[in-house]
Target: NifX-associated nitrogen fixation protein
Amino acid sequence: MSDTVATAETDPMDSPFVRALISRIRADDMYGAWENKKDSALLREYIVTKEERRAIPMIGDPDPDTLSRVEHFYQAVGLAVEQVTGLMASPMMKMSHEGFGRVMLTSGKLVVYSKTLRDMHRFGFEDHAALAREGMKAVQAAVAAIEEFPEVARA
Amino acid sequence: MSDTVATAETDPMDSPFVRALISRIRADDMYGAWENKKDSALLREYIVTKEERRAIPMIGDPDPDTLSRVEHFYQAVGLAVEQVTGLMASPMMKMSHEGFGRVMLTSGKLVVYSKTLRDMHRFGFEDHAALAREGMKAVQAAVAAIEEFPEVARA
Model:
């Protein structure tokens, strides 16, 4: 595991995952409307406290905003994996019904990360540290898979 | 390559892919309404002649019937791969917009087949032989990937 990955625990805002997530969010800011917004303000949508979580109804399919928040999270995981390993990791996400779904990140012919998603309506984290921790956990799992099967990830 | 795969070319209706596709279609017949329908009649929806193809409009997203026809096709590829190799190959399909999409079949941590889908509105084949040929082409590509990286397919 490289140094970059190891520093994740020290400052959550400085982990490769959070930096990738911020770039991903800013990439949507085509007219510069968020230029003066702080990074932590941009991440606000990912913070869902216990109280907020309880208040979110779980009926029907999650709205497009929620879905793109989940998609950006896994795109950021992919970007961070690329920064660490030099190999592109692209996510494929599928929402099946009522907030259930699946996400898979692949590099070459290797599935570097795969997860069943549940309760997507409530996708979020208690605080910035939890967001960074969960993101880096996915990055580290993907990096470990690539280190195990490097020739498949390059196939 | 096993004998089962090699016989694909002789009788299209008897290839592992076409047999898997027929089982997949019959699995939806919960009330036995198609019991007296011949296999070739069940496959009729996959036959789209050049004239029919031209008549299908390409506006908007494909309807749910068309999408499930495409999904059944790749589920049958997965079933046939399992029959040949003993390893489950599960498809994940995502439609992005206007008939474009992507399908990926994975076994364990291996991407055994991946394809960008286009013009899904017109998904279909000139005749039964073409249907069997294209299905078996995907099966053979997946089986070859598993033979190349068996330990990843079992991971």
